[in-house]
Amino acid sequence: MKKLLVLFFVIALATTVANAEGEKYIALTFDDGPHIKYTLEILDILKENNATATFFVIGENARDHPELVKSLVDAGCEIGNHTWSHAFLDKLSEDDIREELDKAHTLITELVGKPPTVFRAPGGRINDTVLKVADEFGYTSVLWSKDTRDWSCPSVDYVISTATENSKNGDIILFHDYNAKNSPTPEALRILLPKLIRDGYTPVTVSELLK
Ligand SMILES: [Zn+2]
């Protein structure tokens, strides 16, 4: 549980620093990709806004689209581990948890050229065993402070308002760049990202936020 607690401490600390220096940081995070359509659309919008983000990829999808992972890395985005098959880890044995993380870890390391340092459990479903195994990989387990629920295809307006209302320094916003249906995410991002920047937020990767 230590690294998770560290995360919340860092957010609290970042808020204090922002109050002193007036700088505000926010981390956009995209789970479950890469996806042949949505990942590229989202990456284009990030580039147009000179923004980076963290993509928590599923190993199986990264295996199918290694070129998309490389495009993300080339644009300065961070790749995090979101398991090999999007398994709910709290239902698995310790060995199976380790295998889910290890397979994705190995592939991401190969594609990125260095090992990932951040991990997000599918569904945010963690327990002590999950955190213990994540610790073996040296991961910081990352959750979120805002959930747009974009995976369930709410309206574009819902995604925009969830991402931009009551913002605070150190927010970690959860989006998805994979959707089997018609994703509202790119259209929402095209509006909400410039708005966050106008409101004084600098979008950074999760690891940059933790620094
Ligand atoms: Zn997920």
Task: Explain this structure.
It is a single chain. By secondary structure, the protein is of the alpha/beta class. It has one domain (2-210): Alpha-Beta Barrel (TIM Barrel). The protein has helices at 2-21, 38-48, 59-64, 66-74, 94-112, 128-136, 156-164, 185-198, 206-210; strands at 24-31, 54-57, 78-81, 118-119, 140-141, 146-147, 171-176, 201-204. The strands form 2 sheets. Strands 1, 2, 3, 6, 7 and 8 form a 6-stranded parallel sheet that branches. It has a two-stranded parallel ribbon with strand order 4-5. The longest helix has 20 residues, at 2-21. Zinc ion (ZN) binds next to loops. Zinc ion binds at residues 31-32, 82, 86, 122.
CATH homologous superfamily descriptor: Glycoside hydrolase/deacetylase
| Major β-sheet profile | 6 strands, parallel
Element-level helix/strand string: HEHEHHEHEHEEHEHEH
Alpha carbon gap, first and last residue:
19 Å
Number of helices: 9
Tell me, rounded to a whole number, the average pLDDT: 92
Tell me the Rg in angstroms. 16 Å
Bin the strand percentage. 15-25%
Uncertain spans, ≥5 residues at pLDDT below 50? 8-19
Q: How would you classify the quaternary structure?
A: single chain
List the helices and strands and how they pair.
Blueprint: H1 2-21, E1 24-31, H2 38-48, E2 54-57, H3 59-64, H4 66-74, E3 78-81, H5 94-112, E4 118-119, H6 128-136, E5 140-141, E6 146-147, H7 156-164, E7 171-176, H8 185-198, E8 201-204, H9 206-210
Parallel strand pairs: 1-2, 1-7, 1-8, 2-3, 4-5, 6-7
Bound molecules: zinc ion.
